[in-house]
Amino acid sequence: MDKLVIRGGNPLKGRLHVGGSKNTALPLMAAALLGDGVTTIHNAPVLQDVFTFANVLRVTGARVRFEPDSDANSPDSMVIDARNIDHVEAPYDLVKKMRASFYMFGALLGRCGKARVSLPGGCAWGPRPVDLHLKGMEALGAEITMDQGYVVAKAPAGGLNGAHIRFEPSSVGATINVMLAAATANGTTVLDNAAAEPDVMVFGNMLQAMGAQIEGLGTTTITIEGVDKLNAVEFTNCPDRIELGTYMIAAAIATPPGETLTITGAEPDHLGEEFLTAFRQTGVPFDIDGSTVTVTGVESIQPVSITTSPYPGFPTDLQAQWSVMMTRATGASSITETVYTDRFKHIPELNRMGAGCRIEDNAVLVQGLNDQSLQGTNVMSTDLRASVSLVLAGLIAEGETHVLRVYHLDRGYENLEGKLAGAGIDVRREEYQE
Ligand code: UD1
Fold this sequence. Notes:
Layout: E1 2-7, E2 14-17, H1 22-32, E3 38-42, H2 48-59, E4 63-68, E5 76-81, E6 89-90, H3 92-95, H4 103-112, E7 114-118, H5 131-139, E8 143-147, E9 150-154, E10 164-166, H6 172-182, E11 188-192, H7 198-209, E12 213-215, E13 221-225, E14 234-236, H8 241-254, E15 260-264, H9 273-281, E16 286-289, E17 292-296, E18 306-307, H10 319-327, E19 332-336, H11 346-352, E20 356-360, E21 363-367, E22 374-375, E23 378-380, H12 384-396, E24 397-398, E25 400-404, H13 407-410, H14 416-422, E26 426-431
Parallel strand pairs: 2-15, 3-14, 6-7, 10-11, 18-19, 22-24, 23-25
Antiparallel strand pairs: 1-25, 1-26, 3-5, 4-5, 7-9, 8-9, 11-13, 12-13, 15-17, 16-17, 19-21, 20-21
Uridine-diphosphate-N-acetylglucosamine is lined by residues 23, 26, 99-100, 128-133, 169, 171-174, 199, 316-317, 339-340.
């Protein structure tokens, strides 16, 4: 297995480039199955989750290949040939590696009128149900049965039919899955309390480019007028908003006072207003100029409490990183989770490094350490965002931090150690035995 070894205390400065969004690339890949042709997706991130999903697509008969993008800064293009889809299954072995494989449910129902998709298992945090996905497909008329851990779905004769569906709570995954199936259903589908996340919006933009009739993207009511057929397209993925937020937090804690970290290739609007407002309140100056965000290091960080919520609220995918930033603040703050109420696996590990955090129900109370440092030690990754929060802690810890089981990190951060090393951080990857 691999671990990252970080020697803390080095200044983070210079430039970091944001790659293509993971959480957008996956539904874009699923959408490519709806077009009877060859789709090209530019700015595809080079990540384990993207490779896993490419393998999920290949099971259906789709051909997927990666090509270097012409822009040296941007990761890759993905070419998906969906002309011969003849196997309507997403097997357990692949789905268990990544929940987002469940997008095959909507993609296969939409394309072939049937699907056999393994139920995703549990997750490092909470049960993460899929009831809204199932109810949504049933509302469209799909007949659903369970067979040995698989969801087996079949459209009625004549195809799926549009329906009025309300999601409670708001769900990124269920919104995307139902949109995949509804794009070619008969008649109109209205999704209430739909996810307004930029990932959903950009995914909807690709469906529109393929010929889908969709209104209300970026709002909580999405209306889809079914069309007969979708076409293969060439489409560019958006930058990863969580990677941007992670780098802004990294700069806040590890860029020396008065010096700067310039983050390029970003889409700052996609962070949502609440994150930007909270960041501003910490007193860490940042400047947005188009796709470039420049963060200036400070002497002290003001404590700012946050509560996660759907977009444009504070993203749940940035709360673990925020807790590390708050360990460096001049006072106490709280982090309240309303999306995944027990997503705090990183907290015991941060406390082992000397952080003063206490979990109370769905909140973490962070006691800012002010000038005191965290201490480097062995810490265990448990999921993607928890892992990156431990890397951030390593940037400011005394001595070496060994972040174990770094495969969690490789699912969603492209060449993180290479990028950080290029911006002044002493970090290396090592193999180890568990
Ligand atoms: C996506 C993101 C993940 C992010 C999350 C919330 C991807 C690949 N993953 O996950 O990084 O943390 O959005 O922004 O894009 N829920 C139900 N029933 C369902 C589905 C969801 O009750 O059928 C609940 C969940 O338990 C959770 C809330 O809805 O409390 C939001 O989850 P959802 O938006 O669906 O998360 P994902 O799409 O799985």
